[in-house]
Please model this.
Amino acid sequence: MTDVRVREIDPTDGTALRSWWEVGAASSAHDRAYDGWPSWDVARPLYSLPRTDLARRLLLATKDSVVVGSGFLVLFLADNRHLAELDVQVHPDHRRRGVGRAVLAELERLAADDGRTAYVGSAYAPPGEGSPSTAFAEASGYPVASREETKLLDLRTAPASWGPLEAEVAAHLGGYRVVAFEDRVPEEWVPDFCDLLSAFMTMVPRGDLDVGAASWTPERLHEVEERTAATGRRWLVAVGVTPGGGLCGFHELGVVAADPRVATVGGTLVLPGHRGHRIGLGMKLATHRRVLELFPDATSVVTSNAGVNAAMNAVNEALGYRVVEQALDVQKRVRPS
Model:
């Protein structure tokens, strides 16, 4: 579609960034099963702050001076330097007119120019159904590489059933402990916590995704802590502590302080050799309880995990999560240019 103009924008340009954000907000509200798009007050610092672990490119598509679509490209710098993450958004009022194809073509060109050989993205659909998102991915040469489910937990009703779960955790922990904290990892646990983050990508189900290991250092961790605070978010963490005092697991939630209605699960991991003590369940209960203590207006928690992850699915089901959509990781591999 030659009359669609796609251009890169400067994320520090508030007017252009606002237009970019509005496309994603309209698209997400139209397509997704829950309101997961960040508020403008959160998005502005989130996308304008520079990062050392990745580079971001934001695209805006216009037709006759009207904003019709947007694109987002992530180029990983700290690890997985062969990988690019692509996201295409088209305003619901301007679909099926070639906007998505034009945005995707420019995202792929930028990724190829940077030498990336695997392009990944996400497509969402109602459970057991297709969607415009999945159809677009398939038509664009992005087969499904990993299947997950998006799940929501209602914080207004679910806690009523948590008492027996907490008793179950207490009965199985033995010499282990679950400890919760916010925003910063206690200094004595920083090395162990970095090891857990480094191990995470090698242990979670990834399907056919071409994603390698990550290497976390204290400097990288502290940068994340600083950026989280600078963008108005809270980081709620629980860790599993071994009888010897080291860490054997972690679980994290993200909450936007200015709009805490929906908390988002990050990573969850219990190392092999320490499983079977209900540590994962205990960590999740600790962070979910803490959300309600810090943010009484929070109404839900959202998570996603692979259908083959039976243990985590059982924990989520016990807590009260329900499936609301399919979350499909799609991927295209290309030859180096």
